[in-house]
Amino acid sequence: MEVMFLIGRILMAFLVLGSAYGHLTQTAAMAGYAEAKGLKNGALMVQISGVALAVGGLSILLGIFGDAGALGLAILFVVLAVVMHAFWKETDPQAKQMEMVNFNKDIALAGGALAMYVLFYSVDGFGYFTITGALFN
To answer: Cα torsion for 43, 44, 50, 52, to the nearest 10°?
Structure first.
């Protein structure tokens, strides 16, 4: 089980850290999208979310307070789904479909992060290729 948990962490971290990299290296392009969704200071919001993704991704990958990192990612993904991918506001069918896909992706990632939180919390991390135990346990 320990190896499967590690593989799951690596796979989740791959996606999360890749997204963090995009947020931090393509801030200008993403800022325009964020501002089109009604956010003020789009560049700053993109950078903040990029740092949050990086911290959460490294936390679950390395097992440094993985429960806190996973819970933080779950919250972030729900917020991003609602704020950035509000498909119910779209009138164009194609745009609505794309936003729904991204909304569902973020909600699914939140679910995966919550499952990871429970695993980090319940086993306290030790023996599961982690650097620290759980923060909240």
So the answer is: -160
- How many structural domains comprise the chain? 1
Please report whether residue 128 resides in a domain: no
94 is a domain residue: yes
CB 77 within 8 A of CB 20: no
Is residue 52 assigned to a domain?
yes
pLDDT, tens only, 86-128: 999 999 999 999 999 999 999 999 999 999 999 998 876 556 7
To the nearest 10°, the Cα dihedral for 43, 49, 52, 56?
A: -140
CA–CA dist 125, 64 (Å, integer): 9
Global pTM reads 0.92
